[in-house]
Design goal:
Layout lengths: L1 H21 L13 E3 L3 E7 L5 E6 L3 E6 L5 E7 L4 E10 L3 E17 L1 H4 L9 H6 L3 E8 L16 E4 L1 H4 L4 H14 L3 E7 L18 H8 L13 H7 L9 E5 L11 H16 L5 E4 L11 H11 L6 E4 L15 H16 L11 E8 L2 E7 L5 E2 L7 E4 L5 E3 L1 E4 L5 E4 L8 E4 L9 E2 L9 E2 L2
Parallel strand pairs: 1-7, 7-10, 7-11, 8-10, 11-12, 12-13
Antiparallel strand pairs: 2-5, 3-4, 3-6, 6-7, 8-9, 14-15, 15-20, 16-22, 17-18, 17-21, 19-20, 21-23
Helix pairs in contact: 5-10
Length: about 450
Amino acid sequence: MVSQFNRILFLLCILGLTQTTWANVSLPAFFSDNMVLQQNSELNIWGWGKPGENIVVSTSWNAQYNTKASNQGTWSVLVTTPTGSMTPYDISIKGYNEVLLKNVLIGEVWLCSGQSNMEWSANSKINNAEEEIKQASFPTIRFFSVEHRTALTQQIDLEGQWVECSPATMQNFSAIGYFFGRKLQQELKIPIGVINSSWGGTPAETWMPAEVFEHNEVISTAAKKLESVPWGPVEIARIYNAMIEPLSKFRIAGVLWYQGESNVGTAYAYKATMTALIKSWRKKWGVDFPFYYCQIAPYRYGKFMEGAELRDAQRKTLDVPQTGMVVTSDIGDTSDIHPRNKLDVGLRLANLALGQHYKIDDRVVSGPLYKDSQVQGRHILVYFDHAEGLNCKGDQLTHFEIAGEDGVYHPAEAKIKKDNSVEVQSDQVKRPVSVRFAWSNTATPNLFNGAGLPASCFHSN
């Protein structure tokens, strides 16, 4: 009698184990309740299952897809999403078990990345933080925060969770990401998903795939000069492998980037570094998405001009197609590397997206950018793009310098001409050959265009 009971118990255990083994359909963390999917797209939904397991993906916008898990235990389906709306959807993924994703929205998804100024939250003390937190009830804006992780090899999943925007969730999320998403939703009238994958104090090199360094001597040499720090990794690809690569199969509209403070020591290589980073990310996603970034703010770095050199490298990175840059020289604090005015940064990034990517109007979305200069006797005429309504906030223009053939720069007088050019001259330079503007770490110049956006620093050589 006892042996018969033991046989029955053994069979029940085997049956239970088999059922547990079958219940094997699972998904990466970024496929979850409350997520936002990119509208009007073909995108992969993928995950894991038992080899050979039949998988059925059903969406409540009336689409069904069938696939089978490979012998590696992976599966994927290409799902077509409708136009964004405030209607919540469900997605069912059914194999031996069923995973049900609830409260899914369709809209626009943006990835925020970089170092601490992108990571900075309302709880980290932004301007007007208490009031902004109170007002942050926007359930159709969704956040996904990627946990800090590093890896020696490229990963396929990461830690994080989609949440609705509320005072409780907004206060710990990227303030710039929140203000960007809020502005987009106000004008586009559709759900917005914002993914924040940032890590304070980290150089650009650790955000790039390792293969980028194999045949690029400039960025490889610069990467070798990075020194270890206690607050985060500096080794190439470590953060990319764990915090960016897993997202590369998740469809996004574009990227927002705020980084550079940790690269001022190798500013000479930053244009090459950022060009390689942008191209490598686009290659991984298979989409030439817009890439909008922030120029670093004025701050007292160790050397007199390394901050200006880094900012100018950022300006020159605009040569890469479908990029845009936010100038922050008017909202910084030279004694604090973390400007507290994150609202204007988020709004300027949003206006870049609305004007350049969504093209909803012809708004001016950039401050004046150096275009060309011409020597005319003892004067140099400087021409800018985005210069309509060029004006000076103050009694006279500041931070212009010119140099002769000896290469020594002297403070210069500058005035705005009727054609929105700037005429620059100095009594100390009889035969000028070059001009520069806002060329110091702490420069806070006062040249703006009619849209109230500040001019970027530049060096004409």
